[in-house]
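Case study B.
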Amino acid sequence: MTFSIVKSLKAAAFGIGATAFALSPAAAQKGLDEPFQQQFTAALAGKTVGYIPVSMNFDLTEGWFAGLKKELEPYGVKVIVRDPNWSTNAGAQALTTLIGEKPAAIVVHNPDVQTYAKLLKRAEDEGIHIIQINMGSVYRSDVFVGANWIEIGEKDTEAVVNACKGKSNKIAVVQGALSAAASAYTLKGVENVLAKHPEIKVVSSQAADWDAAKAKAVTQTVLKQNPDLCGIVGFWDGMDIGTAAAIKEAGLTGKVFLATSGGGERKGACELVKNGSFDLDLSYDVPTQAAQMAGMVKWLISSGVKAGSTKGSIYTTLIPITKDNASVESTCWNLGDLKK
Amino acid sequence: MKLGRLSQQGIVFAIFIAMFAGFAIFLHGFATTDNMLALLQNVAVLGILGLGMALVVIGRGVDLSLIATLAVPPGLVLQMVQDGSSLPVALATALLLTVAFGLVNGWLIAYAEVPALFTTLATGLFLAGFGQALLFKLDVVQWSAGLDGFEKLGQGAVLGIPMPIIVFAITCVIVAGLLTRTRIGAYVYAIGDNPNAARATGVPTRPVIVLEYVLAALIGCLAGLVMAASVNSMPTRIYNSTWIYDVILVVVLGGIGLSGGRGGVVNVVIGTLLIGTLLNGMTIMDMSYSAQNLIKGVVLLAAVIADSFLNPRNEETAQQGDI
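Model:
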């Protein structure tokens, strides 16, 4: 008797268990197929993405490359780089050859607004997606990912104008290279703000060719002539190391407000804001830009849209680096870490 | 010939005085002690390079790889310290690299008899490429904590005189001493004037030429260290710039004939002062970049034309590949 009760209890328990098992979500026994991922992985696998920066070997372009590889390679996308090493000609040649190789997409960093424009159109006509980065050309391709130079010029100048309130109102501008669109766009931003502030006097506005030594020489001379200068708008932090050195040597650190911009690499940006060289460094955070480029590559390839049929932009949200956030780990990035 | 040499130097000096006086009178804020120091400091690195170039040009050579020696060995110092080496180790390595590079230049020119123009063009490209491909992670090598104190070389001052000016002055004294007080200096002039005659009279021309290029490389490296210390970084991309033309401008403008055998340290100093005055004045006037380039180009052209009139090529000894 006892035996049969136990037996029937056992049977009941088994029955309940089995029912529960059968009724539980399919997960345990049989997975549910996500209908879109296979299409995505199949679209990406084996594809090639070309990358043509103006030159490798500097924080921005190395950072973008590392970021692209990190995002795309695990999906079987090959990222190939062609390094024109600052030569516009070599870049145009590399682009032409690359178009012939028919990659799925090309990520391109224009040296100026004209040179690549026709080639980029040709590439899209041949079905290659074009992602332009940080420096656009006059040809509008699928997507532009990068900094809004006008905004950078405006924000830097606004900061300098603010810092000048109640002071001499004399400022200087240290431009990049005259031929570079980034420099010309930034200057436009500077002019936009200055138009609203007639009280500000620009005592010097010179091109230093992205060269720290030249920036230092110009700034030194300007500071000797105008020791009461209240601010400087610099166009690139890599060059403005020289501007900052001139301010420091003149003993004017903290008195002359220096605003600049750059890719936000730790040694070139946060460290220099921390030690007082820069008062404001607008960062177009390179890892974020790289992730957005890679995101666009994924979307364009997997969606199957025709190259050149969509036109959009992803302007980078700027990170203003000041003393307040320069010590925060996540404000800046470091190339070594990005490559890991 | 002596008259001609004097007039080239004299003309440039007169231009310098006229320009200086003009700026001093018409340009507010030019003739102040502070501005004079800034003027000198801004061209000190160029002047140091000019001395290196002068040394080889007097010996009838040319060193287009100077900017590579300015960029790569000092860049290596910054990179090695950033990667954890101590400063003396990094400096010693850079010095070795510089000397080795100078030896290669000198050997190719003196023993393999490849014209200096082509040799240094190629070796300079090689060194710059070597640095970018193998030594540096990024074009701009940043300053790191291990170098603290070393920036005095570029940013310090003794008795109110900025260090770059002092380094320039010391280099001037050393090079002038070498050229005018030693036998080697006399050999350099002899080789520059007529290499075959120098060899025939028993001058060890080949070793002296090698020495010239080693010294030029060392001077280039010194200029680079001063520059790096002065801007707290080494933008190694400077190799791609047109700096080497500025260096040649200083030398030719000062009156050192490109055909060799003439001129000295005084000429470099005059050339440097003229360029310094020109740049400083144009900066104070806030002249546009293109206008500055235009004026620099016109001045160089005038100097080169004057040079070819006053120091004509020696038809007996000139060779294909000489400049």
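The interface with chain A takes residues 29, 32, 34-35, 38-39, 41-42, 45, 132, 136-140, 142, 144, 155, 162, 227, 230-233, 235, 237-238, 240-241, 279-280, 283-284, 286, 288-290 of chain B (CB under 8 Å). The remaining cases will be described in the next quarterly update.
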